[in-house]
Amino acid sequence: MASSLLQSVEISASQFLDIFHHYDNDGNGFIEGKELQSFIQELREARQQAGLDLTDEMKQLVSEYEKNSEQRIDLVQLVQVLPTEENFLLFFRQQLSSCSHFIQVWRRYDADHSGYIEADELKNFLKDLLLKAKRTCDNKKLDEYTAATLKIFDSNSDGKLCLAEMSRLLPREHNFQMKFEGLKMSKLQFNKIFDLYDQDGSGFMDQLKLDSLLNDLCEKNNKVVDSTDLHRYRSSIIELSDGGKLYRTDLCLLLCHDD
User: pTM for the whole thing?
Assistant: First the structure.
């Protein structure tokens, strides 16, 4: 089925996902190795059978693969290669062009600081992005975009998106979540440290205590940081603040690994 979809002049959001999951055999989020080899071979055959030339983007992928067969592509790279309808994934990523904009949107839809955006909230979120860009979309297509976005980013298949999952919409250079890969700890460790700074049990702390909290987190995690690293961590976390308040749930999503 996937190879026949490659013959299409335009691919829908759901068809795009079918293609990606077909070639991502091990489910690691990348098409690589023999997976990529098969994809390129079948792409060439499908386009030829349909009487279609490879697009410039397809030719570039083939050329890069011929130079380096060890490369791999992810969802965002694939959506730039295939003639995906309206390039829905790229469009949503473009609307979330910076970390600060992303956090503003997150705040609007996670007003209760639960740390999650439910499916219905995600649908409204995508609808608002479309309205902001002055693009029309019927309810059926909006449902398809919502389902596709969940399938792409809902890594644990719980039907909702947490901050870490949602941040994958951001370009890599703006993805604050990736900056904390070396500073992850268990929720138990995190809560013990956070409690020292939240003595009134309010569930949040102010920015003035952030440097001390970060130093404690690094010490507990056996991580040595210089002033540059500390500034980088601090700047990313401050983006999460809500009126000067840093909530436990938000910080936990950034700094804790899955137990």
Answer: 0.55
Supply 256's token pair.
């804790």
Q: Select the highest-mean-pLDDT range: 32-41, 67-76, 122-131.
A: 32-41
d(CA 48, CA 62): 15
One of 3.30.565.10, 3.20.20.10, 1.10.238.10, 1.20.1250.20 is the CATH number of 88-174, namely 1.10.238.10
Q: Which residues pair with 242 in a beta bridge?
A: 245
Q: Return d(Cα 166, Cα 109) in angstroms, integer.
A: 12
- Residue pLDDT, tens place only, 133-160: 677 788 888 888 888 788 777 777 788 8
The dihedral built from the CA positions of residue 189, 193, 198 and 204, taken in this order, carries a sign that is negative
Instruction: Provide the 8-state DSSP code for 86.
Output: G
Residues near 161 by beta carbon (within 8 Å), at least 6 away in sequence: 116, 117, 122, 149, 150, 153, 154
**Given this structure, which CATH class describes domain 1-81?**
mainly alpha
Residue that has been written with the tokens 């609007």 in this structure: 108
User: Looking at the domain 178-255, which fold is it?
Assistant: Recoverin; domain 1 (1.10.238)
The domains of the chain are located at 1-81, 88-174, 178-255
